[in-house]
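U., I forgot to send this yesterday:
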Amino acid sequence: MKPIKKAVFPVAGLGTRFLPATKAIPKEMLTIVDKPLIQIVVEEAREAGIEHLIFVTGRNKGAIEDHFDKQFELETTLRERGKSMQIELLNDDLPTAGETSFTRQQEPLGLGHAIWCARNLVGNEPFAVLLPDMIMKANIGCLSQMMQVYLERGGGNVLAVEETTWDMVHRYGVVKPHNWKEDSFSISGMVEKPNRKAAPSNLTISGRYILQPEIFSEIEKLPPGVGGEIQITDAMVNLLKTQAFHGLKFKGKTFDCGDKLGFLAANLDFALDHKGLALSFRKVLEQTLADHHASVTWNDGRDLKEKLRDLKLKFSDIEVSHQIKLAS
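Result:
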């Protein structure tokens, strides 16, 4: 069982759902509050122990490569202005020399083809795949949770999944689970975008994969599918015949930032947790909702037992005060 040190980031997509914003800017460089999507996903990978970041890019994606490089002009200006904290922030996010590789997907032939384009950089090693427009928010990163399943299950392939409403399963790859152990399970089958009746479960693949290198030969065998694209799920179905696949119903929240609504929801959620912005943003949000004749009620995060305990103490204080008043 080899350790997983390489991760592939398919970033060649055109981002047509975000036009005109993505006309000149890669969709992966759109920001969640103050971080580009691609940086959030790279941080998740590095937290999980990934040492080699492999980006499968396309035309007009140079901004991604520049983002993970030093910006001497910017650093010089910041240094002259005494902004050492900003320089430190930039350096903390910067991969070390030789940690990143870039290769091209010349044609938009689907996710399976994008992963196959990284075959020579991955080599004969297991690797992770992270889709940059799927942002996972979790106390322990989604890929870190998957790494634990990889170790506990003795290797193989691992997919992150989440529960989807039954009326939406036709939009995703769906797995058939068995042999559950807490939140992980073995996978006995997969179907790409099934109708509701044909779906083996409502557990859908959610943009994080740990794959063995044999997946590349399975991708090579595939004919183009719908829209002329090569689907990674089809290759995994074939690999499932000879290798074990495991699923993890990860602890966390997913934002599909390839969709405008999901992107806005991610910005809202991350802003409300941002150390420097949360309180101010709440006030702005309250005022914005009021301007639109709506309101919001904030939950203070305490569970029911804690609230009842505080209520009991409050009544106890009132009772003691009343007794003191009567005695006097």
